[in-house]
Design a protein that fits this description.
It is built from 14 helices and 16 strands. The protein is of the alpha/beta class. It folds into two domains: 100 residues, Urease, subunit C, domain 1; 296 residues, Metal-dependent hydrolases (TIM Barrel, Alpha-Beta Barrel), CATH 3.20.20. The N terminus is likely disordered. InterPro entries: Amidohydro_3, Metal-dep_hydrolase_composite, Metal_Hydrolase, Metallo-hydrolase_Enzymes.
């Protein structure tokens, strides 16, 4: 085996293919910093697996972190920002624009956009993804069929898990039909909840469906700045009552940022005891909450990440919307999203890296740990440590899968 320093890890140019070939025969990576570990390490790669992981006497070999798990995306909406008539000034303005655009979606359009998204995510280092899909009728939307096909095609590269997304008020009419389809697809049942009337009864019906069909739940909840948006309180109480720990995930929770801190602290402790998880979406929420025209936003709608984790909740970070009416930016790069989260949420990077990797991976029934004997799947960065990587977003990156470095990010991309 030969030693490989930082230079051959570049993701572009002819040198990028050399370590991939050598990796099959045996490759030694020296002087690495590994996420979650002190000191420097050497990694031996053989036959697509990590054959050895040992302390190193060398330094300067770069930084290695696990592959990524993006637990909250919207592949049906993605890459439509250029078709929006204007910039969204509120959540519900974005919803209306997206509904209008969705009227023109067909299989070819959906496959092209979602395929592009999966390709970008894969080449940036994402191995697992959950996509929510809008669902307003008893029959599955076209996007459901397209994304199920793509999930099969991408198996082995990105494990794609689907989640239905239906407004809570529609469950009385179509909930049973949705739940049956979700069960058949081995997917997740989801609902949009925001200041609904008769909340407890309607939510109870969703939980009934989940229990009857043995489904996990993933809620878009309290995605606004109204202090009377308390859907998450009802979800926590219902989860605790039914004993569904580890099967109920809440995304957004923007209204928590506006409520009394003592009250929120009590709620988060109850959520942790009930086993409810929290997904924080810093990109879209910080962009869309308190949006307007001709004024600087004051309120960012960031869910209380630190407090939730301190209370014992499983806290995750997701991409959410990418280049659509809700959020016109992004590239399915969770490293970039993590950098934004660290800045917006004052996160200590080393303590929070698991929020885009092992924690969501575990929630989806997998593990992405870099370990001896495991697959040679990881991300290498030309950086001294994670803080250095966050400080230099243009630092060279190489994504390793099965002991090979992936080709240039856009080479062979579906368009």
């Amino acid at each position: 085996m030969r030693n490989v320093g930082p230079t051959p890890f570049a993701t572009t140019g002819p040198v990028a293919s050399q370590p991939a070939t050598a990796g099959r025969a045996g490759l030694h990576l020296a002087g690495l910093r590994l996420a979650g570990r002190d000191r420097h390490w050497d990694i031996a790669v053989e036959d697509g697996r990590i054959a050895g992981l040992s302390p190193s006497a060398e330094k300067g070999g770069g930084f290695v972190m696990p592959l990524l798990a993006d637990i909250h995306t919207h592949l049906d909406k993605t890459f439509t920002a250029s078709r929006m008539p204007e910039r969204a000034t509120s959540l519900f303005h974005a919803i209306e624009m997206m509904k209008a655009d969705a009227a023109g979606w067909d299989e070819a359009d959906l496959r092209r956009r979602a395929g592009q998204a999966l390709s970008r995510a894969y080449r940036h280092g994402t191995a697992l993804m959950r996509s929510h899909l809008d669902w307003y009728g008893a029959e599955p939307p076209t996007a459901w069929h397209v994304l199920r096909e793509l999930a099969g095609e991408w198996q082995g590269r990105v494990r794609l898990q689907l989640a239905s997304l239906t407004p809570l008020d529609l469950f009385a009419d179509i909930g049973e039909a949705v739940a049956r389809e979700v069960k058949a697809a081995r997917a997740v049942l989801g609902a949009f909840i925001y200041r609904n009337d008769d909340l407890a009864s309607k939510l109870g019906h969703v939980f009934d469906l989940a229990e009857r069909h043995d489904l996990e739940l993933d809620f878009h909840v309290d995605e606004g700045l109204d202090t009377d948006a308390r859907g998450i309180d009802a979800i926590v109480a219902e989860t605790a009552r039914r004993g569904l720990a580890g099967r109920v995930l809440c995304g957004h929770g923007c209204a928590l940022s506006m409520r009394d801190p003592g009250e929120v602290g009590d709620l988060l402790r109850h959520a942790a005891e009930a086993g409810v998880g929290l997904t924080v979406l810093p990109g879209c929420n910080s962009y869309l909450q308190d949006a307007g025209t001709g004024r600087t936003p004051r309120l960012r709608g960031l869910a209380p990440m630190h407090e939730a984790r301190a209370a014992g909740m499983k806290v995750m970070i997701g991409s959410d919307n990418v280049r659509d009416g809700f959020f016109p930016y992004g590239d399915y790069d969770l490293c970039d999203m993590f950098r934004g989260a660290a800045l917006l949420g004052h996160l200590q990077p080393d303590a929070w890296l698991d929020a885009i990797s092992e924690t969501p991976a575990n929630w989806m029934g997998s593990s992405l740990r870099v370990s001896e004997g495991g697959p040679a799947d990881f991300i290498w960065l030309d950086a001294d440590d994670l803080t250095d990587a966050i400080s230099r977003p243009r630092a060279a990156r190489a994504v390793w899968r099965d002991g090979r470095i992936l080709a240039d990010h856009h080479q062979g991309e579906q368009t």
